[in-house]
Every structure is written in structure tokens, then in C-alpha cells.
Amino acid sequence: MTRDYQQFPDDENGNLLWQMVEDGGDLTEPYEVEFSMAFEHKEQAEKCALNLLHQEQKISLYQEDQHTDQENLWILNVHINMILEYQDVVDLEEWFTKIAKEFGGQYDGWGCMSYLFEYEEDEE
């Protein structure tokens, strides 16, 4: 398969989506995608979480263990079931970047489970 640079531009998101296709991912099927935001203070994360809940978003919130700069950051994930299309990912990143800044945090990227592992049963 040849890469279509209109569908998978040569940037971080386009490269990641293309890698998923090359690894056998079916981007016509929905994935649960986690968009992450990081906050230094619990209160900031909680206010942002409440704002997202009012917008009917599915979220999770946890405190990260010992970040590299010795701080325990609060991580807020927004879980969205979606078909992975480049422009949709870019638009959501822009939206979450704006929201994170509004509450004193920063957008920290996205990810999803893209691999299904099949376990073979032991034959006896």
C-alpha cells in the first residue's frame, strides 16, 4: 500500500496514523482514543474535569507517579470513541490545547489501543 499524503500528512499525527495502517490497523473502525492533559495542581485538573463533564465528555483523572521533574502531575484523559481521521484528530488536539490552557494545564497528546493480540491455546 502506498501512503496517501492527503490522508496521512507528513507530521506527527499523519505519521502515527500511517504507522497504525502499516501495522494492520483498520481506521474505518472506531477506536477509543484518549486525549491527555497535564496539570500541576489537583484543583486545576478538577475544574477542567468538571467543565468537560458539563460538555458530556467521558473522562478519567489520576495523579501521575513522580514525573521527570520530581512533581506528581495530575493527568486528565478524555475518552472519545471515534473513527481516526487526520483532521478530526487535529481539531480535537486544538480544542483540548485551548481547554487545558484555560485551566492552567497543558495538552499532553493522544493515544489508543491499536493492537489486538490473539493468544493460542496450548495443545495437549
Describe the structure.
The chain has a domain at 27-112: Alpha-Beta Plaits. It is an alpha+beta fold and 124 residues long. Helices cover 33% and strands 27% of the residues. The protein has 3 helices and 4 strands, in the order αβαββαβ. The longest helix is centred in the C-terminal third of the chain and has 17 residues, at 86-102. It has a 4-stranded antiparallel β-sheet with strand order 2-3-1-4. This is Regulator of ribonuclease activity B domain-containing protein. Pfam families: RraB (PF06877).
Number of DSSP helical runs: 3
Shape: elongated
Q: Which class of the domain at 27-112 in CATH terms?
A: Alpha Beta
Spans of 5+ residues with little confidence (pLDDT < 50)?
none
Q: Major sheet: size, sense and barrel closure? A: 4 strands, antiparallel
> Mean pLDDT, nearest integer?
90
What is the CATH fold-level name of the domain at 27-112? Answer: Alpha-Beta Plaits
Radius of gyration: 17 Å
Give the full name of the CATH homologous superfamily of the domain at 27-112. RraB-like
- Strand portion, in percent? 25-35%
- Terminal-residue CA separation: 40 Å
Strand order of the largest sheet: 2-3-1-4
User: What is the β-strand count?
Assistant: 4
SSE order: HEHEEHE
Protein name: Regulator of ribonuclease activity B domain-containing protein
Domain Regulator of ribonuclease activity B: 11-112
Pfam families: RraB
Organism: Acinetobacter brisouii CIP 110357
